[in-house]
Amino acid sequence: MTDTSERMATISVLVDNEAGVLARVIGLFSGRGYNIDSLTVAAVDAERRHSRINIVTSGTDMVIQQIKAQLDRLVPVHRVSDLTQDGAHIAREMALIKVVGTGEARVEALRIAEAFRARVVDSAIGSFVFELTVATDKLDAFTELMRPLGLAEVSRTGVAAIARGARTI
Amino acid sequence: MPADIQPQSAEQAGAEVLLQALKDEGVEVIFGYPGGAVLPIYDAIFKQNAIRHILVRQEGGAVHAAEGYARSTGKVGVVLVTSGPGATNAVTGLVDALMDSIPVVCLTGQVPTHLIGNDAFQEADTTGITRPATKHNYLVKKSGDLARVVHEAFYVARSGRPGPVVIDLPKDILINPAPYEAAPATPHRSYNPQTEPDPALIAQAVALLKGAKKPIIYSGGGVINAGPAASAALVEFVRATGFPCTSTLMGLGAYPSPDPLFLGMLGMHGTYQANLAMHDCDVMLNIGARFDDRVTGRLNAFSPNSKKIHIDIDRSSINKSVHVDLGIVADAGKAIAALAAAWKRDDARPDSRALAAWWARIEEWRAKDCLKFKQDMTKGAVIKPQYAIQRLFEITREQQKETFITTEVGQHQMWAAQFFHFEKPNRWMTSGGLGTMGYGLPAGLGVQVAHPDALVIDIAGEASILMNIQEMSTLAQYRLPVKTFILNNQYMGMVRQWQELLHGGRYSESYTAALPDFVKLAESFHAEGLRAESVDQLDDVIRRMIASEKPVIADICVDQKENCFPMIPSGAAHNQMILGPEHEDQAAGVTDAGMALV
Predict the structure, then answer these.
(1) Among A8, A43, B63, B373, which residue's Cβ finds the most Cβ atoms within 10 Å?
(2) Cα–Cα distances in Å, from B138 out to A160, B108, B142, B155?
(3) Residue B581 contacts A where some CB pair is shorter than 8 Å
(4) Which of B116, B192, B316 to substitute to test the interface with A, most A CBs within 10 Å?
(5) Are B160 and B222 in contact (CB under 8 A)?
(6) CA-to-CA distance for A71 and A79, rounded, in angstroms?
(7) Which of B141, B158, B159, B190 is the mutation pick for testing A, counting most A CBs within 10 A?
């Protein structure tokens, strides 16, 4: 019988960098009721005019296979890779995190930031902006720790991911 | 003259380049309707004779006509509409073609590039609106892209799983000079669908089939789309195996209906023998069908004990709704040829005793005669809709012309599928996936344009036909003698049937009061109007309809209360079919969960 347990999947899609391609991918997800937990897109090859879209999604294995097949049949899509399934991979997310406060909380925020190897990219009398590039779960942990210390605003990029070793998409 | 419209140069105007590209793609006919944004194309059409333009009466009709043209010829159907409402009127037809995998290229006008996004007159975000309605779409923003995009659009429309493609053409692109380029000889940069089956998977499929004790072959529209050779290969393969064969609504005609190996259509209104064989089989071979919900019934009760092999050109169709044991991505024709060759090579012999026992059970089911109905033959008796189609089929067989059938959507469509029998592919055009009322008349128009000497009949209901009745005027203009055979019960019959069976007989809004007089309506459209009010008038009306050289509307007044059986109610399994009133040993119910299904 079919497996009904859900899993997360990080899917990378290499597409032509053309008008409407992101709308096609997003429309596919919304139209067919698939989840998008995170989505990033940027041009990666100016000469070939390729962009890479990284999508973190979740579903049963049957649904994730469907997502891959549905993405693969879009005309401007060159390659689709389920990084979670295809072998070891690295996934990173960058965030800018604003913490507002003074006194002991401010000192504690700076101490934790050092432990996470977050960089201070803006500093004012009453606030810090930290920059942190880590895996998503670590980023979640960091923002949770900052919450009682004056967490004011978070801006995250979403996940960029790539396979380990010599393998390419 | 606006700044972005440049004067003539050595290059031709975009509209001329567009027509050149269409000619090079082999286009002979365009179904369209003019408007401001596409006037340059109409001007170019005026100046040439190679491509014929058929002026429809509403853009929705143009797309269905192109679908009928495409389905009856295997070529790409071409549509030309203006911007804004021209494009939005085409959307239903585009989705229809998407659902039924019909190759269509739809050219839409657009406001000039400098006005896009300004809420200009007759502006709509056509590529935005049609993105989920098409296989792919394009907005041509640079003259240099025009010819390439047109060639690519035809390639995408007909390759892999066919479908509709929109090219949105801003007016300045049509006026400004553009370079011409021929279709590229190199493969497409990203879209190259797999058509050859993996031989290892074919061998596994043959091993499963050879070991089967209760096999069934279930074929669909993919076999029709793969061309007439695929249908011929299917017939040969089925006969080589001696296995029973059933077909989806979309696949009718691929396997000749009178053949004893054919069990008839399966699914919600399919035959008892086809559905029970699907339910009880041990190995199922699906070729070019997509396990549609109208076929499977309740998914978790669908053919529970079978190994399933699924051949489809679209990888995303495999394991979409039904988990299969063996998925093979391939063109149906190539896959059947590979299966047939592997079947011959493989020394294993099928289990003939088990097969004989399987056939004996199937024949018991077939003996139930699930489609039987009672027609009172006394003079003045009410016509049963089934009888009307049965006689239509029999009488069309008495004449020599090739016969093509289109339908609208509803009870008449299902009766047509049950009682009109096909021996060849591409003779049956019906809106399967989207279920678009108003499909049949314009689709028939497109079929008749492609086959001027054939007998083209739209089997219709009186409600559906009114949805695109304006195309009667197109038939008159081009002398297209399409016959419209209306099973008139004054109800939206399938809605009425569901209300009777599922909603306590509360016939909410399903009765059409004040219907037109279809005979007079036909006459006003320069067609011939006929009416049969009782069974003794039926044959004469059918014969006069077929003999007429004009378009005809035959208004066949049928039993208002007749329901379409057999029926698998929503949420039920194949072995919980309801048979008609001629069968007393019936007990069936619809669950609350089933009521919620469509």
Answers:
(1) B63
(2) 29, 10, 11, 13
(3) no
(4) B316
(5) no
(6) 9
(7) B190
pLDDT of residue B369: 95
Residue A57, φ and ψ in degrees, nearest 5: -140, 175
Q: Does B160 touch chain A (CB under 8 A)?
A: yes
Interface residues of chain A, partner chain B, Cβ below 8 Å: 1-2, 16, 19-20, 23-24, 27, 31, 62, 65-66, 69-70, 72-78
CB A56 within 8 A of CB A9: yes
CB atoms closer than 10 angstroms to residue B356: 10
Q: Which two three-digit tokens encode residue B370?
A: 């699930």
d(CA B79, CA A39): 36
Q: Is the ipTM of this complex over 0.85?
A: yes
Residue B19: exposure state from Cβ atoms within 10 A (0-12, 13-18, ≥19): buried
Residue in this structure with the two tokens 């009904």, named with its chain if needed: A4
- Residue B284 annotated as catalytic: no
Non-local (6+) Cβ contacts of B20 within 8 A are: B12, B147, B180
Q: Do A20 and B127 touch (CB under 8 A)?
A: yes
B585 vs A143, residue with greater confidence: A143
Tokens of B131: 């993105």
CA atoms lying within 13 Å on the CB side of residue B232: 3
Chain B residue nearest residue A3, CA to CA: B323
Q: Count CB neighbours of A124 within 10 A.
A: 9
- Region of residue B225 (left: phi > 0; alpha: psi -120 to 50; beta: else): alpha
Alpha helices by DSSP H, listed for B483-590, are: 493-502, 518-524, 535-547
Residue A110 banded pLDDT, cuts 50, 70, 90: very high
Residues of chain A positioned with their CB less than 8 A from the CB of B139? 19-20
Residues in chain B, pLDDT under 50: 1, 7-8, 587
Distance CA B333, CA B81 (A): 34
Inter-chain contacts counted by CB atoms under 8 A, chains A and B: 45
Is the Cα torsion angle B174, B177, B183, B185 positive or negative in sign?
negative
A151 three-class SS: strand
Enumerate the β-bridge partners of residue A154.
A97
DSSP 8-state code for residue B119 = -
Q: Is B577 a catalytic residue?
A: no
Burial of A153 (0-12, 13-18, 19+ CB in 10 A): exposed
Give residues with Cβ within 8 angstroms of B582, minimum separation 6. B372, B373, B374
Say if B544 is an interface residue toward chain A (CB within 8 Å).
Answer: no
Strand ranges for B215-306 from DSSP E: 215-219, 245-247, 262-265, 283-287
Residue A122's alpha-carbon distances to A97, A98, A129, B211, B511, in angstroms, are 10, 9, 5, 72, 71
- The one catalytic residue among B11, B12, B28, B122: B122
Which residue in B353, B392, B416 sits closest to B483, CA to CA? B392
Cα–Cα distance between B250 and B267 in angstroms, integer? Answer: 11
pLDDT, averaged across chain A:
95
Q: Reduced to 3 states, what is the DSSP secondary structure of residue B132?
A: helix
Locus of tokens 């979740």 = A58
B315–chain A nearest CA distance, Å: 6
pLDDT at B2: 53
pLDDT at B591: 60
Note the pLDDT tens digit of each residue in A40-92: 999 999 999 999 999 999 999 999 999 999 999 999 999 999 999 998 999 99
CB B24 within 8 A of CB B183: yes
- CB-CB under 8 Å, A23 with B131: yes
Q: How far apart are CA B503 and CA B137, in angstroms?
A: 42
Bridge-based pairing state of the strands A38-45 and A50-60 = antiparallel
